Amino acid sequence: MKQTVSPPPSAANLKKAQGTYKIPALRILSEISSSLSSDSTLEELLRRFLGTLTKLAGADAGAVRVLTTDGKRLRLVGAVGLPPDVIDRERYIDLECGVCGKAAQASQAQSVHYSQDLKICTERSSLHYFGNQCKRVVAVPLRYKGKLLGVYNLFLAHDQAVPEEVALLFHSISEHLGMALENARLTRENIRITLMNERQMLANEIHDSMAQTLAYMKMRMSLLRDAMHNGNESKTEKYLEEANQALNSAYTELRSLITNFRNRMDPRGLLPALQEMVDSCQERTHIDIDFQNHTPDLNLTPDQEVQVFHIIQEALSNIVKHASARHVQVSIALQGDCYAVTVEDDGIGLADRVPSPDSDMHFGLYIMRERAQRISGSIMIDNLENNGTRVKLTFPVMSAAARETR
User: Fold this and answer.
1) Are residues 159 and 294 located together in one domain of the fold?
2) In the listed set 187, 212, 245, which residue is the last one of a domain according to the structure?
3) How far apart are CA 37 and CA 87, in angstroms?
4) Contact (CB, 8 A) for 346 and 387
């Protein structure tokens, strides 16, 4: 197959081409940069600039493909100007196929690839489009740090190369869109990890609260059945009452779990979410709750924000249920290399409300500690001098480099 490859842009070539393409290039790159922060999906973004690349190359048709998850094929995500039968046959192509394969296997420096020999394209699709309406195929690989992520194909009705200044522009466009593809992949991975972690946390909370209560109820029902079978009236009443209490406890725990997982964080971030939670709790319970942020710049990862939010939520829930408090203070401060989140109340104190192993408060404290461990933090619970309780979460400030990997 006859292949030609455009060289990487040199300083001399760039200087020579500046007068003819600099202004439109800057306009297009500016448009791409602004589009990266829009609400458009990545595939919409790739399709949007497909038309631009097609016009710049003087092509009659174009297609954009992305690498499949197994890394073996290219999937068609957008096309302009191609006949429907060609689109149908071109939905998936092997990574090693034709000019696209050459583009995939080439080094990063080779930015635009051409092919006038379209025999492979014709054999693959069994169509006469290649070689008749289409005389030349151009492949512009989308890469990030040397890794192939996708490719733009431009189909020309004439057998002429793309102008050098346009090839230089394609090189810049491919770098920008390649970075967008990689960022989208990382975002998807982070979302999957967050979902998996939250599902695991939900499973743990159900196991540590409702599952044990239901197991206790099951044992009491077995004893109740034996007592009824033996005609032991006193034990029947005893086990029936215990089963009823366990059922009420399970119902309360279920409502609490539903409430906690319905309370979604404010998308603006932790501070607005906490203020909304405090205001809602204060309105519902008539407890005076004061929220103060003493940090000059609270810069947390999304996972840290979620864990801090739920820890404070659980602490307030315990206060409402068990503390008989009239005033609560929630504060966030920076202490050396750690953030300190404190929830204090003026209630009856921890000594008068030590949780039993199967109480909802016990499970709540366990879950708070587990959430703290997920952000490399710890929970301390102490009595205050003049009654009341302090719950203090401390966790390390994450470096900028570490935040970028989360």
Assistant:
1) no
2) 187
3) 30
4) yes
8 Å CB contact between 138 and 59: yes
Of 13-27, 77-91, 247-261, 371-385, least confident by mean pLDDT is 13-27
Helix (H) or strand (E) holding 334: strand 327-335
Are residues 145 and 24 located together in one domain of the fold? yes
Average pLDDT, the chain: 77
Q: Taking the CA atoms of the chain, what radius of gyration do you get in angstroms?
A: 32
The beta strands (E) that lie in 129-220 are given as 136-144, 147-156
CA angle 16-177-141, nearest 5°? 70
359 CB burial (10 A radius; 0-12, 13-18, 19+): middle
Rounded to whole angstroms, the Cα distance separating 323 from 91 reads: 63
Neighbours of 233 (CB within 10 A): 10
- Three-state DSSP class for 267? coil
C-alpha–C-alpha distance, residues 234 and 363, integer Å: 32
**Cα(44)–Cα(96) distance, integer angstroms:** 26
Could you report how far apart the first and last alpha carbons of the chain are, in Å? 45
Angle between helix 11-36 and 164-206 (nearest 10): 40
Tell me the CATH number at 386: 3.30.565.10
Does residue 62 carry a pLDDT above 80? yes
Residues 167 and 273 in one domain: no
Other CB atoms within 10 A of residue 219 CB: 13
Mean pLDDT within 268-281: 88
Residues 98-120 have pLDDT tens digits of 767 666 666 555 567 766 667 77
Contact between 305 and 285 under an 8 Å Cβ cutoff? The reply is no
By residue range, what is the domain housing residue 337? Answer: 265-406
DSSP strand E in 100-189: where? Answer: 112-115, 136-144, 147-156
Distance CA 119, CA 136 (A): 11
For the record, the structure tokens of 155 come out as: 């189909």
Q: What phi, psi does 379 have (nearest 5°)?
A: -115, 130
For residues 79 and 88, give the distance between their C-alpha atoms in angstroms, rounded to a whole number. 11
Each residue's pLDDT tens digit, 132-144? 888 888 888 888 7
